[in-house]
Every structure is written in structure tokens, then in C-alpha cells.
Amino acid sequence: MAYSEDHIALAAEYALGTLDADERAQVETMMSLDRDYTALVESWQHKLGVLNQMVGSIEPRPEVWDRIKAAVGVSEPQSPLLLPEAPLSLSPPPAANDASEPVRIVDPSNVIRLTAQARRWRTIASFTTAIAAALVVMIATQLYQPDLLPDGLRPKVRTQMVEVKTPAMPTASAQYVALLQKDAGSPAFILTVDGSSKNFTVRRVGATPEVGKSYELWLVSEKLQKPRSLGVIGRNDFTTRPLLSSYDTDIVNKATYAVTIEPEGGSPSGVATGPIVFTGKLIEAVPPAAAAPPR
């Protein structure tokens, strides 16, 4: 149901408690007859009730009441205040030379009604502004100082479960070593193979490089039709390559590793052309458990 501005203003002032006895009786009568108007009044009470939650009740000291009574002049019993009846406002009498101008009478009830409406809407506007300011204060308090608010207005604490996964420890792999030597003499090279990645490192120990020649490493297995070249061993102390990753683990672990002397840069045909000078087989030097890093 659509209500007039006066009815809406009365509902708001009823919620604020600023109506006189007659106006409150009028609002309560409308509420008893109209459920929609009751809902309108309750909506204003809900909107304006936030102001009561923002402050706590404080009982003033007795001397404060005495000062208030003294200030308004009611410290002693007062006689009833009688207001004079408002006279009708008459327009100025017509001019003597204009006898035909009629006398105009202004109805004061219109002025009183408009004044009451203006007072109501000024009151509503003031309290609406106060509500907006109170909401801003409440939101800021919730963000920065929630402990100052009552329990019902404090923001709810959200608990978020976070699953922390312990990173898996890297799997340690066994380490294999082969001494590449001739006739059980002193080793010329030491071949080290990582059991997981199959990367290998050749360390030069006693072999002496020949001018114009290169040492080339070969993998020899009965499961392969012919030896496979693993590349030229460099002239530095260490040579590291990943070439074994393409071979089966069983072949890598059981193969014989041989070193031949080839033309500088290695065999041009991919087949060994020079003599085999050093050989050796892999043995497990470090087992997986011992290779695991300390925790």
C-alpha cells in the first residue's frame, strides 16, 4: 500500500520517540488496523535501532537532573501552561478608494500543517544523516578495532584450514664405479655412473694424452650387436656426459667399458679403429641408503 509523506514521517518519528501523545495514539491506531503500516513502522525501528547498539546506557548522577530542572525552570511545581488560541489572520482592510475589493481571510491550519511537515522531514533528514555516519563509524571500527563493538556486531572470525604438505625427500640413487686400466696395473681413468640419471663422469688419473690422438670410450655388451661409442674423453681432468640414459639399466650395470686410441676427435666411422688400451666393469660403490642426504 502506498502511504503519504505524512504517514511515512509519522512512522519514522514514532520509531524515534519524538511524537506527542495524540500523534502516537494516531500511529498506534493505524498499526492496529493496517499490517502494512505496522511493517513500515518496524522497518524504521530496525533502521534507527543501530544507533542504540553503538552506545551503552549511562545513568546520570542525581545532581545532573537537578541542574537540568533548574535550567528549564521546573525545579518547583509548575502551573499548567495555557496557550492562547491563534486568531484568524485577516488581510489589510481595503483602500478607501477601492470599495469593491473583498476582505481575504487566510486559514492558519494550512500554515500549521506545512510547518509540522517541514519539522518532520527535517528531523528525518537529520537522523538519516546520523545513521549514515554511525554506519561508517561501525564499519571502520569492525575493520580496525573490533574489540570495541558488542558481541553481536563484531565480525565473525573465519577459520581456514591449510594443508601443509611436507616435500618428499629426494630418492637417493646408487653410485657405480669402474677402474679403467690395463693388466690390473694402475688405473688410467675412473668411470663413475649415477644409478638414477645414468649420467657418467670420466676422471683422468694415469693416462697420458698422445699428440694427434684421442681416447674414446666404448660400451661393450653381449646384448648389443656391436660396441657403442660414448664419446671422446676430453683432455681435462673430468669429462661428464648423459649418453647412458638411452640404455637399459641392466646393460649399463653389466657392460664392459673400454677405451681405444683413435684419431684426434674420435673414430670417423663410429666403429673402433684403434687398439683397446684400457677396460673395466662397474661395481656398486655407494648403495642407495648411504647415498641419501642427512635429514
Offer a concise description of the structure:
This protein folds into two domains: 1-53 and 108-154, no CATH class; 175-287, Immunoglobulin-like.
Question: Could you characterize what this model shows?
Answer:
With 295 residues, this protein is α+β, with helices and mostly antiparallel strands. It is built from seven helices and eleven strands. It has helices at residues 5-16, 21-33, 35-54, 62-72, 108-144, 249-254, 288-291, and strands at 89-90, 105-106, 175-180, 189-194, 200-204, 213-220, 228-232, 238-241, 256-263, 276-281, 283-286. The chain folds into two domains: 1-53 and 108-154, no CATH class; 175-287, Sandwich (Immunoglobulin-like). 35% of the residues lie in helices and 19% in strands. The mean pLDDT is 76. A hairpin with a 7-residue loop joins strand 6 (213-220) and strand 7. Helix 1 (5-16) crosses helix 3, helix 2 crosses helix 3 and helix 3 (35-54) crosses helix 5 (108-144). Strands 8-5-4-3-11 form a five-stranded antiparallel beta sheet. The radius of gyration is 52 Å and the shape is rod-shaped.
